[in-house]
Every structure is written in C-alpha cells, then in structure tokens.
Design goal:
The protein has 550 residues and is of the alpha/beta class. It contains 18 helices and 20 strands. Strands 6-5-4-7-8-10-3-12-19-18-17-13-14-15-20 form a 15-stranded mixed beta sheet, with helices on both faces. α6 links the parallel β4 and β5.
C-alpha cells in the first residue's frame, strides 16, 4: 500500500496534502482526480473581481463622492454574482426596443445559418409573423441545418397544426413543453409549469434573448401583419456568452415533462447574505498548496515530486476547463461582461431572483424597474422598500393596460405599500407594456423574460441577461427615460381619492391573483394585502397624516 496525498483545508487560504493509504498503481490517478474535484469546487475568485473593477468604464461610473464605499459594495456583490456561474467578458450586446429590428435580424440569422438553430418561444399565434418565423426555420432545415424548436404547449396553443406539420416535414425537431397528459389529471398542479423563455442560438455564434414572442404584436406595419401593440426589449448577443445561453437551452430541453415536488412549493428560498459569501473561502483560489507527504529525505521528496509532476500549484494559473470559474478573455475587445441567469421551479436554481435581491440590496443611488406584472413576493417588496428608506431613488414603470388585465388591477392594490415609503410608480400609457428591465446605480442592468410575479418566481422557466457595463446600463436607462415620457405618475393623492368600489375591485383582483398559491398549498408568510382592512389604504393614510403633522 502506498500513502496517497489527500487535500485538506488548513488556516486561511492555504491547503495541505495529507497521506491516505491507497494501492500504488492508483496513486497518480487518484491524485489527478482529487485535483480536479478541488478545482471544480472553486466557483469564483477575488482576483477576477479585482480585474473586472480595474476597467476604466466601471471605475469612472463607481467614483462617487456621495458614497465612497460604492465601489467596494459592488465588488462584493460581483463576487456573489460570480458564484452563480455563466459569466463571460468580451461580449457584443445589441439591444432592440422595437420588434422590427429584432425580427429582421432573427430571420437574417435563420437564412444564413450553416450548422444549427436552437429556437425557443413561449407564445406563437396564427398570424403573419409566426408563419414567417416557422417558414424560415423550415427553409433552414431543408438546406441541411439541424433545427430544434421548442414551443410551450399553452403559450403556442394557437399555432395552427399545418405550421407544425410543415416544420416536421422539413426535418425540424419540434418539441412541445409540458403538454397535457393523462397523468396530469392525478396531479393538476403540474400543468402550471410553463417555459416562458424566448431564446434563439444560431451556429453557436449568435444568440437572441429577451421578452419578445414571435407574433405580430411586437412590430409595426413595416413588417407584414404588424400591429405594434407591445413595448418590449430584446437583444442580439455575440461572444462567449452564447455558449452559456446554448447550455441553458439544452438544460430546458431535458425538462420537457416537469415533475412537481415539495421544493417548488417554497415561496421564497433563503437568499444567502453577502457576509455568507465573503466569509467563506468558496470564491477564493488559495495562493499556494503546501504538500505534506511524510517524506523526510531528499531522495523521498524528489521521488514524490516526479510522481506528481502533473499537480501544479493551484492559483498560479486558472485551468481553462473551469468554465464557471473565470470570465473568458476571448471575444470582442472592450466587450460587455455578461452573466446568463435562469430560474427554475427548484428553490436552489432561482439564480435570477438571487441576483436581483443582491443588486437591489447593494444599490446606493438609483433603482429603475420596468415590469408589466408587478406583484413582487414579500422579500422583493422588502428589498425595494429598504432601498427607498436608504435614500435610493426608486422608480417603477408598470402597465396601465395589460394583456392579462387581472394583473394590472391586482398591482394597484399594492401601490400603497410603495408610495407610502417614497417609491415612485408610473403607468405606461402608449402601448401594452411587456418589457422586463432593471438598471441599478448606472452599473448593473438586466433584461429578459422574468416578471415580478409568482408565475416567474416559482413556476416558469425563465432567462435573464445581467450586464456589468456602464454603457449598456446607460442605454437601458435611456429606454427607461423614454418610457417615462409616455407614462403617467401615480401619486399619493390619486390613490387616496380612489373610490371605494375601485378599492374593492383591486382587492378582489389581488385575491384572485393569489388564488393559485392556495390551490397549490404554498406555505406563504403573512400578507397584509389579503386583509379586508388593507382596502382602507392604511399606509397612505399614515403617510398623509405624517405630512400634515410636519
């Protein structure tokens, strides 16, 4: 038997190899396996965070005289975000505010595809844009391109069968997410699980991600059939992040028939605190590894070194195969730092939620939120209100008219919770709002398919793109300010004068929006909004009373 060195933690960032009895012929193999396991357990490094924050764009954006600690706070937050993986540098992100630009780029990508197209969409209808999209996919398949199309069974239920038959006849692999099956009659809760993502990957080089479905409601009459009903945000991405988006697509492809579990009944998973991340050594690469082999003589030491020559000092260089460990340096010069995040039913896979919690808690200047279905769970509400109480300028744009009217009415029942604490709320009037974006401190920005409601939080498959780039944050902030011009602010006075029958109607809508939770048996915390007393708008009353006192 030979003594095999095994890795154990010592003090600080040092690790020590200790002896373990193993057969001689397994020594090198087990040593290599131990190194690989150890390397893969490291998720992010302070060195990566420091290198990112040395970039001129971030340094200038975070140089705040009002809050000198802002850079340090965001550096810690970035360290927490990197724990979730799927981060990369050197990406080119082209944002689309109108569907015309998106569909032209999408169809052009289909026509020029050579090897592979992965297409994922929640909503498809019997209209010209849906037909054109399926026709382009079928044409690509006939050219020999490997095409996979995933449609949500509920969202794409209006897509005519001839469209699907044409795709299959052309050789497209058509997959319907969570279709109705006999077994669902015994567990009807599973039918609530939907794939809400809108993702496309072409030839592993180009990706499209955002909130736009392939229907005529997102474009003007410039594209045949366009009716320009929705205001939304989408993007074209090139660079290393495409690999992460493709990996996310393939993961959801393996989840076509989701199963219910007790885990998806957890309303809000515990969000790890920043202190938890920064005090643990998970995010750090040890600067050195001390080898304690028990060898005493020079000959024994040399013999051991020759056997373990492949084991390098961990931390001298980052292994290239650890994709989730570092930000990839390949791609576009001065490109955007992108993180691809997903949300699943399972509480340990709700990375979008964890990132948004972390970002809002780190905010020190401004939080600009655009979201059409604004029914945030209790922890989100608390984070937003805490930010407002810290003096952060919090503005929220939500819908005035919605494609799901009950959500707009239910949201109005919650306005008092935010207006009473200094949060400013605006209702978008020009179109039906469908955009989901957030910009924080002109540094952190995100967009995608994630809504601030229970469906996105617990049931749906969702994808969001997070960018740590001041230029992209400014671009999304510009979209936000343009939308403000087409919005009407909801004031304390307006809410205070709301008629009693409107209050009862909004409260009833809020009850109805929460009804699926009761049907599922979700164990929720106390919610003051469910009480009939909340129709008196006590927070608004107290706020108005305090203003009079002052």
């Amino acid at each position: 038997m030979q003594a095999f060195p095994r890795l154990f933690r010592r003090k600080g960032t040092s690790f020590v190899w200790k002896k373990q009895k193993l057969p001689k012929n397994r020594l090198i193999k087990k040593a290599a396996q131990a190194c690989r396991r150890f390397e893969k357990s490291l998720v992010a490094t302070s060195d990566v965070v420091n290198r990112i924050f040395e970039k001129e764009k971030l340094r200038s954006a975070l140089d705040s005289k009002k809050d000198p600690t802002q850079k340090q706070k965001w550096a810690k937050a970035m360290g927490c975000l990197l724990q979730m993986g799927n981060s990369s540098e050197g990406n080119n992100v082209e944002l689309y505010k109108r569907g015309n630009e998106y569909f032209k780029a999408l169809w052009y990508g289909f026509r020029n595809a050579e090897d592979e197209i992965l297409f994922e969409c929640y909503l498809m209808k019997n209209d010209e844009v849906s037909f054109r999209t399926t026709w382009e996919l079928a044409a690509a398949a006939r050219r020999g391109v490997k095409v996979t199309a995933v449609f949500d069974w509920v969202g794409a239920s209006e897509l005519p069968s001839p469209f699907l038959d044409d795709l299959r006849a052309a050789g497209v692999r058509v997959v319907q997410y969570n279709p109705l099956q006999l077994k669902l009659l015994f567990n009807p809760r599973q039918i609530l699980f939907r794939n809400h993502k809108k993702t496309t990957v072409i030839d592993k080089k180009i990706a499209f991600v955002g909130g736009m479905n392939a229907t005529n409601e997102y474009c003007t009459s410039e594209i045949r059939g366009g009716i320009d009903r929705f205001r939304d945000t989408h993007a074209r991405i090139c660079g290393p992040a495409v690999d992460d988006i493709r990996k996310n697509f393939l993961e959801s492809l393996n989840d076509i028939h989701p199963e219910a579990s007790t885990d998806d009944l957890i309303e809000e998973a515990q969000v790890p605190s920043m202190k938890h991340f920064m005090t643990k050594q998970l995010h750090r690469i040890p600067r050195r590894v001390i080898v304690d082999t028990g060898a005493k003589t020079k000959e024994q030491i040399d013999n051991f070194k020759s056997k373990l020559q492949k084991i390098k000092t961990i931390g001298q260089q980052v292994p290239a195969h650890i994709r989730h460990l570092t930000c990839d340096r390949t791609g576009f010069a001065n490109g955007t730092i992108v993180q691809v995040l997903q949300s699943w039913r399972h509480s340990n896979k709700r990375n979008i939620q964890s990132a948004l919690h972390q970002a809002i808690r780190t905010s020190s200047k401004a939080v600009n939120i655009t979201n059409p279905y604004f029914l945030p769970p209790p922890q989100f509400r608390k984070d937003i209100l805490d930010a407002a109480n810290r003096g952060v300028d919090v503005k929220i744009i939500t819908c005035s008219t919605s494609d799901v009217p009950i959500m707009a009415y239910a949201s109005r029942h919650l306005y008092q919770d935010f207006l009473g604490e200094g949060v400013r709320i605006f209702e978008y009037k020009k179109k039906v709002l469908h955009s989901k974006t957030m910009v924080i401190d002109d540094v952190f920005s995100t967009f995608g398919s994630f809504n601030f409601d229970d469906w996105s939080y617990r049931r749906n498959l969702e994808m969001n793109i997070v960018m740590m780039d001041p230029e992209k944050a400014q671009e999304l902030k510009g979209h936000f300010e343009e939308d403000l011009e087409d919005s009407e602010e909801v004031t304390l006075d307006y809410c205070h004068k709301t008629k009693w029958h409107s209050r009862v109607f909004y409260w009833t809508a809020y009850q109805a929006a929460r009804l699926p939770k009761r049907f599922e048996g979700v164990k929720s915390g106390p919610d003051a909004g469910l009480s009939p007393f909340s129709m008196t708008y006590p927070k608004l009353y107290n706020s108005c009373k305090s203003e009079v006192t002052l």
